[in-house]
Every structure is written in structure tokens, then in C-alpha cells.
From TrEMBL, chains A, B:
<dbReference type="InterPro" id="IPR036249">
    <property type="entry name" value="Thioredoxin-like_sf"/>
</dbReference>
<keyword id="KW-0413">Isomerase</keyword>
<protein>
    <recommendedName>
        <fullName>2-hydroxychromene-2-carboxylate isomerase</fullName>
        <ecNumber>5.99.1.4</ecNumber>
    </recommendedName>
</protein>
<dbReference type="InterPro" id="IPR044087">
    <property type="entry name" value="NahD-like"/>
</dbReference>
<dbReference type="InterPro" id="IPR014440">
    <property type="entry name" value="HCCAis_GSTk"/>
</dbReference>
<dbReference type="InterPro" id="IPR001853">
    <property type="entry name" value="DSBA-like_thioredoxin_dom"/>
</dbReference>
<feature type="domain" description="DSBA-like thioredoxin">
    <location>
        <begin position="7"/>
        <end position="193"/>
    </location>
</feature>
<dbReference type="GO" id="GO:0016853">
    <property type="term" value="F:isomerase activity"/>
</dbReference>
<dbReference type="Pfam" id="PF01323">
    <property type="entry name" value="DSBA"/>
</dbReference>
<dbReference type="InterPro" id="IPR051924">
    <property type="entry name" value="GST_Kappa/NadH"/>
</dbReference>
<comment type="similarity">
    <text>Belongs to the GST superfamily. NadH family.</text>
</comment>
Amino acid sequence: MSRRPVLDFWYEFSSTYSYLAAARIEALAEGAEVEVRWRPFLLGPIFAAQGWTTAPFNLYPARGRYMWRDIERQAARLGLPLVRPDPFPQNGLLAARVALSLREQGATPAFTRAVFRAEFAEGRAIADPAVILALLRELGLDAPGVMAAAQGAAVKARLRAETEEARTRGLFGAPTLLTADGEMFWGNDRLEEALAWAAGERPGGMR
Amino acid sequence: MSRRPVLDFWYEFSSTYSYLAAARIEALAEGAEVEVRWRPFLLGPIFAAQGWTTAPFNLYPARGRYMWRDIERQAARLGLPLVRPDPFPQNGLLAARVALSLREQGATPAFTRAVFRAEFAEGRAIADPAVILALLRELGLDAPGVMAAAQGAAVKARLRAETEEARTRGLFGAPTLLTADGEMFWGNDRLEEALAWAAGERPGGMR
């Protein structure tokens, strides 16, 4: 059995376009014969480093109004339900820690999709530990045990390291797709191109 | 002969993604049976109103590095030549005035494509009146006459009014596509969706 090329899928739980990408990536990756690594991280520290105190969609109202309308259209195209979280952005710190802590048992993708669905399809508060506990139980996981591990020092340090890696690799938004050879693709719109690049395809004339 | 629906194509001469959209829009619009209105405007005053002194690609270096790589890939996909203008962004004020002044004689699309090609395929300085004069001559237009009219008070006021209309309609970047019913699409990536909307198509479940 040959080894599949790997695509790193960097996402942030508060991010609308990450919701769309998380809903799409597995079927597309299967078709492209690419293996996806799910990499939750935090945009907050990256935004803060460039002087932003919240999401650009809040800082720049015209940009924000457009984003919501565009997300509504994109969700409709994909047949995905959409509610607008209140407040926006939601704080995704706890969810990111839990998602990271589940990597070894292979539960990160399923948990990630469950969080995005709770947040953007059902309007639930993903910063609320009770919501996260309920999602873990629904997935058949040891909810209290996972929660305790996720809030331990090791996972906290790991999430900080992941976020620092994202920053040093030049990530500025989410979702971001990174190939093994360092090619960066930003946004749900670039998912197909990122998978094709990971699989070895190159746009005309590029190497 | 039935009247075709109209799509407003708002673009800025310094904008890389406007270059791609300008190269693609006419063939796509013909296929969608949509009429395009070419509407040059200035992003500078809109950026300045939100506190930006230059393009976001310069203000946020990680975003800028990504944009150049993405544009390189997109140009390769489309088979379009690409050089990086120096300095970037170019000052598109003169080109925008000339493009606007050519509307009545129907020469705006051809002139616009010529400017984008000079800027992004040949690396010429589009703020230089000699470059604009040369492009006008190559198009068989009365170059000195056009240039004089473009720098008159009427055209200057018209460009200010166009830019103010863009701002009040919520434009925050370029290219932006606006349908007759006020639907906004931002970016070369949304060109196909904008044309489909203008032609009456709606994503599943939307009205």
C-alpha cells in the first residue's frame, strides 16, 4: 500500500469559512487520495500581533456584512444549515484544546465536525464546557476524562506551540491548507486547488 | 431582442485580482448572456476612511506574501503572464479617469484591458502619462484629446462620484461585482457566481 501525500488543514473554531471547509474536506481528500491532518489553532494571538483586537469582520463593518451574506450563499450552495453565532466570534479556546487532545485516539475530525455543527448549524455556545461535554458524550468518548486532559498543562502548551508554528509559517487566517512542500492555500475557496497540489498537480508552467 | 441583465464590474487599476477578472469577464458574461458595465473606481479613499495608508497587502506582510504566490498560481492556471509592478500598488488615478472618460465611446473595456496588461504583464508604470498616451494611440484613439478630457473637471468630479457610490454601497475591495438587485460578490473567485446570480440563478433555497 503506497503512502498518501499529506495536507495540513489548519482551522480555527470561530471561523465561518473553516466550518465550510471542515464539512467538505474529507470527501474531497478521499477523491484526491490525500491524507488530511486536522490542525486546530488560535487566530487570536496572530490577530493580536498585528494590532487587531477582534475578527476583521467586526473591525471592518462593510467586510463583515459581506462575509455574512457570502457565507449564507456558500452554505446554501453546499446544502449546509447556517445560524449566526451570538456573540461572534465565539471563543474557540476550549474546543481547540479538546480537539488537539483527541489526536492520538483519532477522534479529532469527528469532534471538530460536531463542534462546527453545534456552533454554526445549531447556534450553541462552544465556549461553554457543558456544550463540549455533551458533544464528547454524543461521540461515545469518556467526556470527563477528555475534558480533564484537555485542560491540563501538556495540552495547553501543545496548543500554544501549534499556534506559534502557524504564525511562524505565515498563517494569517483560517482555514489554511499547507502541503508537505510548504505551499500555502488560504480559504475554503482554495480547498480543491490545495488537494490537487498535494496530489502532485501543478498549474500550467509551474513547478 | 430581449434585454440582457446587467452586472456592474467595479475594479481598481492597482488591483491584482482585478487584472484576472478583467481578463476573464467578457467571455464568461457572453456565455451567461449578461451585459457588463465596466466601473473603474479608487480604493485609496475607501482604505483611507478605515485608517489604511496603503494596500492591505503592504500593511500585513504575511497577507501580502500569500497574495503574490496565490496570484502567481492563478495566473498560471489562466495562462496569463504576470510581473510584479514596482512600486506596488501602482497609482491608478490617471488610468481610472481615462477609463471613465471613454465610457460614452464604448472604449472603456479595451482601454482597461490594455492598462492591466501593461501593468501586470509588461511591468510598465501606469501612472506615467506617456504610458497612457501610448496605450490610447495603440487603440487608435485620439490620445491627446482623450487625455485632455480625462484631466478636466467634469471627469475628475465623475470619478469622485463613482468612488463615493462604491463606498456608500459597501464596497471594501476590488474587484466587486454588483447585480441590479444589489447582490454583492467580491473577488475574481466569485465572478462565475455573480454572473449566474445576474442571470437569475439562485443557490439552493435562496430567493
